[in-house]
Amino acid sequence: MNLIEKITEPTFTNSSKGLLTLFCIGLFQFAIGVDLTSTEVTIPWLPSINFPHIERITYLYWALVAFSLYRYSLHHFPVMRMHYFLAMGRFFRVDKRGEDFIGQEILSGELAYRVSVLDDEDSQPSIKIEHYQHGDQDWELMCEFEFVFNQDFTLDKIKFSENPNYQIDEIALRKTKNQQKWGLQRFVDDEGNKEMESASIKDSMLANYLRLGVMRNYFKTFLSSKDVFDLLIPIVLNVALFLVWLIIVLFAA
Q1: Nearest to 206 by CA among 101, 129, 116
Q2: Which segments of the chain are extended strands (E)?
Q3: Is the pLDDT of residue 62 over 50?
């Protein structure tokens, strides 16, 4: 199989092996340096072959890398999003920043809560934050905040509901300004229950703070899980190599 056939093979541009091969080619060029000083190839008994724009081979290489990264990402996005979903669960369950986030933006630092990460085939993946207290019927659910995802682990909606028989003023999401930050809108479901729902976080600072906290946990998983490491390292290496090349080009200009 020649080089063109190898590169154009579908399994090359959507696989970690293909991306790592491209990374090694680029790293080899950076490590030993390849300088094409002549744009002319001379073969005995045949006319000379001239390449007036030989420098453009670098751009072709990076175009191939970009195409391969795109195809690789398309084929592996569901798995990447699944690990992002699990990282969000860890952020709320075990991260001190997640605890502070819940206390400031969802419930209250004075209220106990339980975080449940649900991922089974019979229902949509979700992350629930629930607050229970003793009530008239013993131990009762007072409020519930939930991130609901589609089966491909894209965020579907955000839900918030309270027990209509009780009122807990300490809950942060009882404040209108916090509801607006989350983009929550009140509605009544088919059974007459009142809930609040949002398709996405409206406040960019709130969304970025949550995203940063989740990415910290995602990075920890990247370093500690062989499956996530093998999944992401081809992307990380090629993007890092591109940034190094870009910095060199910009400083050389």
Answers
A1: 101
A2: 40-41, 49-50, 114-118, 126-135, 138-149, 155-162, 185-188, 194-198
A3: yes
- Cα separations in angstroms, 37 against 41, 44, 51, 58: 11, 20, 11, 14
Calpha distance 244→237 (Å, rounded)? 11
Main-chain phi, psi angles of 196, to 5 degrees: -120, 140
Would you say the C-alpha torsion 96, 98, 102, 105 has a positive or negative sign? Answer: positive
**How far is residue 58's CA from residue 248's CA, in Å, rounded to a whole number?**
13
Q: Point out the least confidently predicted range of 86-100, 187-201, 224-238.
A: 187-201
Distance from C-alpha of 20 to C-alpha of 203, rounded to nearest angstrom: 39
pLDDT in the model for residue 104: 93
CB atoms < 10 A from the CB of 182, how many? 23
- 91-to-61, 65, 80, 171, 219 alpha-carbon distances in Å: 38, 33, 16, 20, 12
Q: What is the pTM of this model?
A: 0.84
H/E segment holding residue 180? helix 176-182
Task: Report pLDDT digits (tens) over 193-208.
Answer: 678 999 999 999 999 9
Confidence bin at 41 (pLDDT 50/70/90): very low
Q: Is 162 helix (H, G, I), strand (E, B) or coil?
A: strand
Are the C-beta atoms of residues 23 and 237 closer than 8 Å to each other? yes
**C-alpha separations of 182 from 62, 174, 234, 252 in Å:** 40, 12, 35, 46
Structure tokens at 188: 């009544």
How many C-alpha atoms does 177 have within 13 Å on its Cβ side?
2
